[in-house]
Design brief:
The complex is a heterodimer of chains A (111) and B (112). Chain A is an all-beta fold and 111 residues long. Chain A has no helices and eleven strands. Chain B is globular and about 40 Å long. Classes of the chains: A mainly beta (111), B mainly beta (112).
Chain lengths: 111, 112
């Protein structure tokens, strides 16, 4: 059974701080990884994806991938209260176009 | 922008009823997916489709069926609704080339 593990949180950070969200995955054949943000009562919204080892930056967001350690992370710089949401990590299942999702980490950014 | 719409935001049905949930996308995406999301269990894949008239079972297909007669439309059918099918149902789409999935707004189904 392919798994994606995330700490459920909540992760609490003050406004302006860096929030660091992490996940690990079990499918060594996974090549692509996705981060979604989900506000309470809403559907998941894609914020970043990463395919290659290393860092990928998009505005205040940086995704990091380490395939050897089977580890993916999302850094949110200058966190804002509007970033308060649940963040879902997903891994593309090898050989398929389906994703396995983690259960999400709740992030709370306090003013 | 990808637009994925679902037929209802909220739905209340009785046990034993046949329930249809519809998903429509306007971006010509090949792949379509149905998930349910429950507290503590996360997103779980019910069925998916790579093309018209094609369907594949996901992780929890029991009690559900699907239909894809047109590329833009993917329907989830609960043949005989049960209370344990009370959940948030989410449709998503993706292309064959990028695998990024885009979600519809979701349907919160309550079966009483």
């Amino acid at each position: 059974q392919k798994e994606v593990e995330q700490n459920s949180g909540p992760l609490s950070v003050p406004e302006g701080a860096i929030a660091s969200l992490n996940c690990t995955y079990s499918d060594r054949g996974s090549q692509s990884f996705f981060w979604y943000r989900q506000y309470s009562g809403k559907s998941p919204e894609l914020i970043m994806f990463i395919y290659s080892n290393g860092d990928k930056e998009d505005g205040r967001f940086t995704a990091q991938l380490n395939k050897a350690s089977q580890y993916v992370s999302l850094l949110i710089r200058d966190s804002q209260p509007s970033d308060s949401a649940t963040y879902l990590c997903a891994a593309l299942n090898s050989g398929y176009s389906t994703l396995t999702f983690g259960k999400g980490t709740m992030l709370l950014v306090s003013p | 922008d990808v637009k994925v719409t679902q037929s209802s935001r909220y739905l209340v049905k009785r046990t034993g009823e046949k329930v249809f949930l519809e998903c429509v996308q306007d971006m010509d995406h090949e792949n379509m997916f149905w998930y349910r999301q429950d507290p503590g269990l996360g997103l779980r894949l019910i069925y998916f489709s790579y093309d018209v008239k094609m369907k594949e079972k996901g992780d929890i297909p029991e009690g559900y069926s699907v239909s894809r007669e047109k590329k833009e439309r993917f329907s989830l059918i609960l043949e005989s609704a049960s209370t344990n099918q009370t959940s948030m149902y989410l449709c998503a789409t993706s292309t064959r080339t990028t695998d990024e999935q885009y979600f519809g707004p979701g349907t919160r189904l309550t079966v009483t």
